[in-house]
Design a protein that fits this description.
six-stranded parallel β-sheet; homotrimer; 194 residues; alpha/beta; 13% helix
């Protein structure tokens, strides 16, 4: 095992230890809906996370879902969620082709991520385009990420943004549509000796 | 009966056939709250659509309401919803004078439509202005349509927009406030022979 | 007692008389969660307002909370809400240091007010900055007010705005990020003789 891997695993372990037994039990119950998964926890007393699966797959690492999360998976579509990531309250992910969420991503509450417009414009074909959210991305509350967007590693999306185009790594972006405001310095978290 | 009418009716029939018996039963129950109505279906297992009627009227054609829809109708106000249209999850319509939604409109989830600011600015009179949404309009999720706006036939409003001014027919508009981004070509759906 | 004070008290009294016994009973129940409070009413049949208090304080005057309101109070943080103000449906207030909402403020539904980004940027310290909302401010539905913002007396924030910087008194502001659109004339409500 690489040093980096052991570091990552240790941090995930740390993260998961913070959760109550009840969150783990709810996570186990929820993980029935997932094709493959690591340790999954479900947080919050509101409406249980909901999966509307029309024939696709969900692959989740060690991750956390909050109350009210809604995952809509189309036929043959795949949603991939990395380890150490969470989807906060009422986040909606609509997947008709592919949505990838990396490791250690923070998806805040009321976020919408869609790889499809769901309806074609009359006279045109409905075109779905994958959404890729790389590792360590942080998406602020009530943002919308639309089809075909790639958000680069470590980027931050400000609250209330609508992301319609690619955002480069380590950028801080915001607005409707989202534009790069500034760039953050990214310090890779240090290896923790266990 | 005109050829066009028979076409429209056939398409509505097609649309309604897709719904389950349970959606029709819930639709019947919901239609008690409507002044006049066609075939109404209610979709989704969340909170039942809610009408807060302070003395106005709702006239609905053959249409579909999703869970969490909320209609607030003021005294003497009227809400008109055409046939073949739907209001998706948690859409809120606030009517103090008049809101008209045409035929075959797609109103996505979390949309807010208001013909009133609900509060006057001190020293001014509260002015309500009708909202007109013409046929075949598609309003993207989490958009807000404010008082006095007319959205022309076949226009598309991008997700997360705030519409404060008129949008011409066949335009694709978006942003806060919403501006025309481009124009779509609109192909009138062909008559279907039954 | 100053004439102005008696005026204010009379208007609050008028406001509270409009509420039902049931709203007052729910208000009493809710006020257990408040450190100090005046007459509190709770409106709406949806989910009861929720307080997540990690060791801070809430000081509320005579005010009104709607269904689905959520107050998250961090350790040592304080939330102050003036008299004659209300927080409409599903408003979220996140307080890590201090949020002050003045008297006679109208906070519309789905508003988010945060004095913290909740997460630091890696390599930086998480910096919280108080949010001050002065008297007679009206915040339109689904707006977001971010850390460090002061909204001046009598200002109006348009629906769907994201407020990232100070807004001067009596301004009407809107957009993402919010900018001043115009200035209102503010007529101080006249003293009412009781």
């Amino acid at each position: 095992m690489k040093d980096e891997d052991s570091n990552v695993l240790f941090r995930i372990k740390l993260r998961l230890q913070r959760h109550s037994l009840w969150e783990h039990i709810k996570g186990l119950w929820f993980s029935r809906k997932l094709s493959t998964h690591g340790i999954v926890v479900v947080t919050g007393s509101g409406s249980f996370p909901k999966v509307i699966n029309r024939g696709g797959e969900i692959h989740a690492g060690h991750c956390q879902f909050y109350e009210g999360v809604r995952l809509e998976i189309g036929k043959g579509a795949s949603l991939i969620i990395g380890s150490g990531s969470y989807l906060n309250r009422n986040t909606l992910v609509v997947v008709e082709t592919k949505v990838e969420i990396g490791n250690f991503c923070k998806i805040a509450w009321d976020v919408i991520i869609m790889d499809s417009d769901l309806h074609p414009i009359e006279g045109k074909i409905l075109e779905n385009k994958p959404v890729i959210i790389e590792d360590h991305v942080w998406i602020g509350c009530r943002s919308i990420v639309l089809k075909g967007v790639r958000i680069g590693k470590g980027a931050i999306i400000a609250a209330g943004s609508v992301v319609t185009k690619d955002i480069p790594a380590y950028a801080i972006a915001g607005g409707v549509p989202a534009r790069v405001i500034t760039t953050r310095s990214f310090i890779e978290p240090q290896a923790i000796k266990s």
